[in-house]
Design a protein that fits this description.
Oligomer: single chain
CATH class of the largest domain: Alpha Beta
Distance between the termini: 22 Å
Shape: globular
CATH architecture of the largest domain: Alpha-Beta Complex
Structural class: alpha+beta
Bound molecules: adenosine-5'-diphosphate, magnesium ion
Mean pLDDT: 94
Radius of gyration: 20 Å
Strand order of the largest sheet: 8-10-7-11-9-12-13
Length: 340
């Protein structure tokens, strides 16, 4: 028997490999694997479903992640995928694998965060599963959303000439993580020293308590705008842009000056000797939305304070490029993740 290491395929290659022999059999399955959420239609509206798993030691570190924040984040990252379809989340299920290290009080904290998120996003917790694990905590959340079929926005609808838009600043969540990791190392070496993170509230908040952009899809309805393509920014701008370009069969040009970066993130990047734009392109976990619009819709967003135009969709043969502030053109690389 041949043995192929999963790393040779990467996450997306592995998903494609495993799901290659599953043609959709049901006429109600409008969209299967490959977007932010699957889409099903049984009646007049569509149901969208997305699921995400958070694994202790891979996605979170309880040394610096309060369980309440973790619960909130587990819901946020899932409803974010529903918003990325231009749909509204309605229900979630939560499945847990827990080791005997966790007390009822600890799990109550986790659920306090889940409850706060359910209230904030207006979703109902309707089920899940609970089992034991040998080591560590695993949380899997499934989010179910709803939208009329005509509202749904996929990754594959971007067209040459469309404007590329971002809903908020990028890179801070990654820098918050760098800071928490650094404080953890300092604390491990000198347990007496209390970390002082007060000064970097913004970046740490972006990392520990991300908010999914529920407001944005309401704004779209208010100004009567339907993006041509959309994805949420979980792995970094570059990686998400690659998904849109690959599925829409187009290229893209991003202007460095059009990528929003919070002043606190700029400062932190300098402290860590990192390039702020690299953090925005490859950092991930910002949970903003990346979407494209027809140029004729540009006026609809110009008045909106929280939406930034960062570039333009190009022909596939133009590639995916970044124009730096200095005017140089760089080929973007899809980095995204390496979790295995
Ligand atoms: P996101 O980053 O938006 O959460 P992922 O990269 O996790 O999306 O997943 C990409 C697509 O592949 C989604 O449609 C997801 O449902 C699907 N997918 C991921 N893992 C599996 C798997 N093990 N089996 C089937 N489909 C999967
Ligand atoms: Mg997504």
């Amino acid at each position: 028997m041949q043995r192929t290491d999963v790393n040779t395929l990467g996450e997306f290659g592995l998903i494609e490999h495993l799901t290659r022999n599953f043609p959709l059999q049901q006429s109600s399955s409008l969209k299967g694997v490959g977007d932010d959420a699957a889409v099903m239609q049984f009646g007049s509206d569509c149901t969208v479903v997305s699921t995400d798993m958070l694994v202790e030691g891979i996605h979170f570190d309880l040394a610096y992640t309060p369980l309440k924040h973790l619960g909130y984040k587990a819901v946020s990252v899932n409803v974010s995928d529903i918003y990325a379809m231009n749909a509204r989340p309605r229900q979630i299920t939560v499945s847990l694998a827990i080791s005997n290290r966790f007390s009822v009080e600890a799990l109550d904290e986790l659920y306090e965060g889940i409850r706060a998120a359910c209230e904030h996003y207006g979703v109902d917790l309707v089920g899940g599963d609970t089992t034991s694990s040998l080591k560590g905590l695993v949380i899997s959340v499934t989010a179910i959303g709803q939208a009329p079929e005509t509202d749904l926005v996929y990754r594959n609808g971007a067209q040459v000439g469309d404007l590329i838009c971002i809903t908020g600043d990028l890179g801070a969540a990654y820098l918050g993580l760098q800071l928490l990791e650094r404080e953890k190392r300092i604390w491990q070496e000198n347990p007496g020293v209390q970390p002082d993170l007060e000064e970097q509230k913004y970046a740490i908040g972006r990392q520990l308590k991300p908010e999914a952009r529920k407001d944005i899809i309401e704004v779209f309805r208010k100004v009567d705008l339907k993006p041509t393509a959309m994805i949420d920014i979980s792995d970094g701008l570059a990686s998400e842009l690659f998904h849109i370009c690959r599925q829409s069969k187009v290229g893209a040009l991003i202007e460095e000056s059009g990528v929003p970066i919070h002043p606190d993130a700029q400062m932190l990047a300098l402290k860590f000797k990192l390039d702020p734009i690299t953090c925005a392109l490859s950092g991930g976990e910002d949970y903003e939305l990346l979407f494209t619009i027809k140029p004729s819709d540009a006026d609809k967003i110009r008045m909106l304070p929280e939406i930034y135009i960062a570039g333009e969709i190009m022909r596939a043969e133009d590639g995916i490029k970044l124009q730096t502030k200095g005017g140089n053109l760089h080929e973007l690389k899809a980095q995204g993740w390496t979790h295995f």
